[in-house]
Write a structure and sequence with these properties.
alpha+beta, 8-stranded antiparallel beta barrel
Amino acid sequence: MKKTLLIALILFVNSLIFGQENENTNSKNSRFFTQFDVSIPFKGNPNRNETYVNSQENTNKNWFVPDGINAKIGYGIQENRWIGLSLHTGIDWKATEKLVAIPIFANLGLSTSVGNNLRLTSQVGYGKGFALGRGNLSGAYKKISLGIETDADLILFAELSNYDIKVKNFESVSSFSLGIALRTF
């Protein structure tokens, strides 16, 4: 009886020690996260360097002008701070195409360290996009982004995205965006 009690006690203590070791290892290497990002899509300025009828020059000499706003949120898991898989949704407004769409997509992210406090981050997403206010208009959604991530889990990124949705004379709607993302663990 004493032997059985001693073996049970040793097994119990070992399982507590082993359980704590795994918990600490998992918290460092594999973490669940929530990501929120906001970005501004840009388009080429069609009025750049134009002269008006009254011979007055256009003061807007910018190459690109804002063309809407995007906001997305996602939830996923990241392993060893270098590979992550997540599910995202959000809302995108493209002003030129007069399109408001909701993407739902899976996102694969890779982050590699480029310095003490910086990481180079790339993300690829694929899913489905649904246009709001246009009946049952939907199509494939694709995105790719490249950014810089800080130790505070703040990401500054450039993104290319595409909706395979036919709007007006466009076979698909694509955009180039600059944005900021925040990841919380």
